[in-house]
Amino acid sequence: MVTNSDATVVKPLDLNQLTMQADLIFSGKVLATESRWDSTRSKIWTHVTFSVDEVIGGSFAEKEI
């Protein structure tokens, strides 16, 4: 019998490590969520749209992400 599986290993990081590695840190609100199949219809991804109230780290000029 052949079985397919996926696995993910996540290295635990403390808050300082997370902030040092982040491209963007912002505060905001969730405006919308939408679940969609990937192109092969093998995985479902959830796409989230945020309103950006304040950029805390990095740079981002738009009002939504």
* Uncertain segments: none
Radius of gyration, rounded?
Answer: 17 Å
Major β-sheet profile:
2 strands, antiparallel
**Strand tally, please?**
2
Helix content: 10-25%
What is the average per-residue confidence, as pLDDT, rounded to a whole number?
93
Distance between the termini: 44 Å
Order of helices and strands: HEE
- Proportion of residues in β-strands: 35-45%
Q: What class would the helix/strand composition place it in?
A: mainly beta
Overall geometric form: flat
Question: Topology, pairings included?
Answer:
Blueprint: H1 15-21, E1 25-37, E2 44-57
Antiparallel strand pairs: 1-2
In short:
By secondary structure, the chain is mainly beta. The protein has one helix spanning 15-21; strands spanning 25-37, 44-57.
